[in-house]
């Protein structure tokens, strides 16, 4: 059983002031009314009423808040725990870790871009270190970009963090410059890379030295394409196997990961003429050339949408196909997923083309699922991308080239087929339903200069496309009913089924035409199929028709399949 209960009223006279107890009472209403009155009279900026229940066993009060009004309590600065007093990086060697290099690449992005280098090269090239040290302001700004957010997150003083990172960076820079002066990094002009790797095997600083050797081979090059070509040359000259080969390939792979992570570098390597969608398709072809070639053999149309990969990119693709540089392959595959889930259009000036390239990417990435990415990751990315395909802006741009409402309906049906995700399917279905239920759709189909039979065939084809779009049952029924009603209006005006039933033609020929209408092959299901079915039944029951069919039993067998499709007993 709960013990005695009372209510306590606390107030804060100013925003930064602490809560102070003003009143304690056993009447809840009195405590709440007093709190509201204090706040109304502006005697405090905030009030709080708590319910205090005494536990008879422990004789302690359990507190619960029942009212809080006024200015929110200011967030208190988190106290620095003992574990937080140390920085993420404690020594110069910590700057070489992947996450540290990624941070260096972000805070020095503009400077590195101007130098045509990566963070890995900065950590291994004395010439780059000397240029950065001479710039002064670039380095200071980079330290602030690192220290201030960390200070806000941990509560450590910003100036202490800046001093810590300043000392850390100075030590790392001194290490690289000293190594350059002492000739620690062998020059490949007079020595082979394989020989250097063999002699470094077993050395304690072999990773640092080999990084300097590989980075030094890029000193005289500007531009991503020639740098990638040089890295492929180094890979060709690497030792055949064992630890020396791994030492070389790891250093090359780390530079490749940073080089290809930059959007400008990727555009230069793959071709500046490619748009976003073409660039992503080229990356997929470079990462998974075997799977893409198999898809092209199966569907030659993909060759028109998948950009060709040549030069250094093709050389890299061959190595990725052989299983080399697995971290780079995974990094590029995930970059494609990030871009697909991002807001950038794949084909900014060509909405129908965006559907084409998105479908191509979906097939390509699904073919690589299990090796680079999981199928769930691919599906999630395309579901997220599909959200941008059902927005009003995209749909408007998508149907702008259409001259007729029938063209719009066909394009929207294609949109329904290519989006993924239940909510995106529903959104696309709403666009299509609004199109086929509009008065404009019915009016244009009625005044169309084509024959009634041709109009019904077009609507039947549209119906089959809607069924293949994998929409929800409710949406499919609504859209098919609207198309069927339009077909019914066209058939009623032309009296097509009645004309067929009374045409001076052989009975098997008339039955075939009526049953194809009833089965939905040459007309949309709905009023037209029902009328055709009724006329076919009448014709079957006519004595002269039965006599004609009995006289030519070979004509009955082809009709049985149509009768089954039309829902008639054979």
Describe this structure in words.
With 570 residues, this protein is an alpha+beta fold. Helix content is 64%, strand content 6%. The protein has a four-stranded antiparallel β-sheet with strand order 2-1-3-4, covered by helices on one side. 34% of the residues are buried. Mean pLDDT is 86; it is low at 79-85. Residues 72-93 are annotated as: Disordered.
Main β-sheet, in a few words? Answer: 4 strands, antiparallel
| End-to-end C-alpha gap | 78 Å
- pLDDT averaged residue by residue: 86
Strand residue content: 5-15%
Residue windows where pLDDT falls under 50 for at least 5 positions: 79-85
Structural class: alpha+beta
Q: Count the strands?
A: 4
Percent of residues in helical segments?
55-70%
Radius of gyration using CA atoms only: 37 Å
Shape descriptor reads: flat
How many individual helices? 30
Task: Give the number of domains.
Answer: 5
* Sequence of strands across the biggest β-sheet: 2-1-3-4
Protein name: cAMP-binding protein
């Amino acid at each position: 059983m709960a013990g005695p209960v009372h209510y306590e009223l606390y107030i804060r006279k100013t925003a930064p002031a602490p809560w102070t107890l003003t009143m304690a009472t056993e009447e809840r209403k009195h405590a709440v009314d007093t709190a509201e009155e204090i706040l109304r009279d502006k005697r405090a900026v905030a009030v709080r009423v708590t319910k205090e229940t005494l536990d008879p066993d422990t004789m302690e009060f359990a507190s619960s808040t029942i009212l809080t009004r006024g200015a929110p309590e200011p967030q208190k600065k988190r106290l620095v725990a003992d574990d937080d007093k140390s920085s993420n990086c404690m020594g110069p060697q910590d700057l070489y870790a992947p996450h540290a290099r990624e941070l260096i690449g972000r805070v020095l992005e503009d400077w590195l871009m101007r130098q045509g280098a990566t963070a890995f090269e900065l950590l291994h090239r004395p010439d780059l270190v000397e240029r950065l040290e001479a710039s002064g302001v670039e380095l200071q700004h980079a330290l602030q970009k690192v220290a201030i957010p960390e200070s806000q997150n941990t509560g450590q003083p910003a100036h202490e963090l800046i001093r810590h990172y300043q000392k850390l960076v100075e030590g790392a820079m001194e290490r690289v410059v000293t190594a350059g002066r002492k000739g620690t990094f062998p020059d490949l002009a007079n020595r082979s890379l394989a020989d250097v790797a063999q002699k470094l095997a077993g050395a304690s600083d072999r990773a640092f030295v080999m990084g300097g050797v590989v980075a030094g081979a890029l000193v005289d090059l500007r531009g991503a394409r020639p740098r990638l070509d040089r890295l492929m040359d180094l890979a060709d000259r690497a030792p055949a196997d064992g630890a020396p080969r791994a030492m070389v390939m790891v250093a090359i792979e780390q530079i490749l990961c940073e080089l290809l992570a930059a959007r400008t570098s990727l555009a230069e390597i793959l071709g500046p003429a490619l748009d976003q969608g073409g660039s992503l398709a080229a990356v997929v072809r470079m990462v998974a050339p075997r799977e893409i070639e198999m898809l092209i053999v199966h569907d030659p149309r993909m060759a028109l949408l998948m950009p060709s990969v040549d030069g250094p990119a093709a050389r890299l693709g061959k190595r990725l196909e052989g299983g080399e540089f697995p971290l780079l392959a995974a990094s590029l595959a995930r970059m494609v997923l990030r871009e697909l889930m991002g807001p950038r259009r794949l084909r900014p000036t060509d909405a129908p083309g965006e559907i084409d390239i998105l479908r191509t990417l979906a097939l390509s990435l699904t073919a690589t699922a299990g090796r680079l990415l999981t199928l769930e990751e691919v599906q999630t990315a395309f579901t997220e991308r599909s959200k941008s395909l059902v927005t009003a802006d995209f749909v408007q741009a998508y149907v702008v080239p259409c001259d007729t409402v029938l063209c719009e309906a066909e394009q929207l049906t294609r949109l329904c087929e290519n989006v993924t995700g239940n909510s995106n399917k529903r959104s696309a279905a709403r666009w299509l339903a609004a199109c086929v239920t509009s008065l404009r759709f019915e009016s244009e189909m009625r005044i169309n200069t084509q024959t009634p039979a041709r109009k019904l065939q077009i609507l039947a084809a549209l119906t089959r496309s809607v069924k293949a779009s994998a929409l929800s049952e409710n949406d499919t029924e609504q859209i098919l009913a609207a198309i069927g009603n339009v077909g019914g209006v066209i058939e009623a005006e032309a009296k097509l089924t009645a004309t067929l039933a009374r045409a001076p033609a052989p009975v098997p020929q008339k039955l075939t035409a009526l049953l194809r209408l009833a089965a939905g092959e040459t007309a949309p299901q709905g009023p037209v199929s029902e009328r055709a079915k009724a006329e076919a039944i009448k014709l079957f029951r006519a004595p002269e028709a039965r006599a004609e069919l009995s006289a030519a039993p070979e004509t009955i067998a082809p009709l049985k399949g149509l009768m089954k499709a039309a829902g008639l007993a054979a």
